[in-house]
Amino acid sequence: MHHVPNMTWFETVVDDAVDNLPDWVVERIDNLLILVEEEPPAEIEAEHGDLLGIYDGVNLLERSEEYWGALPDQITIFRGPHVRMGLSETELRSEVRKTLLHELAHHIGIEDDRLTEIGWD
User: Fold this and answer.
1) CA distance 79 to 62
2) Which of 25, 37, 80, 88 has the smallest set of CB atoms within 10 Å of its CB?
């Protein structure tokens, strides 16, 4: 990549990825915020390394009546780890989309083992 994309540009890339999600994914999104941060929190980074994104919430398969009225689940996409990959703008857009889909899969209820099996890891 010839320049380091700033946060505004990166947020636009994430917004574009959200706007272009497949219908079958959009139909399953429920009570979810999608955020962009510069870096993962230190405690999460210490445990997981250079994390590209993270899902925090109760996935759709585990929700019960007690979930009603809960604060929204969150997906956070991290700019710094993406930028450090040294990708072209086109490659970075693709990686952001892949990260977003991976985290949305967790929201839907698909665990990492299954994501690996289907090639979404």
Assistant:
1) 29
2) 88
Check if the beta carbon of residue 14 is closer than 8 Å to that of residue 36: yes
Task: Write down the pLDDT at residue 5.
Answer: 87
Answer for the pair 104, 63: CB distance below 8 angstroms, yes or no. no
pLDDT, residue 81, reads 96
Tokens matching residue 33? 């915020």
Q: Could you give the CA distance from residue 83 to residue 51 in angstroms, rounded to a whole number? A: 12
β-sheet with 73-78: strand ranges across: 32-37, 73-78, 53-56
Q: What is the pTM of this model?
A: 0.89
Alpha carbons within 13 angstroms on the beta-carbon side of residue 102 total 20
CA 83 to each of CA 6, 25, 110, 117: distance values in angstroms, whole numbers, following the listed order: 9, 26, 27, 27
Residue written as token pair 């690996």: 116
CATH number of 7-117: 3.30.2010.20
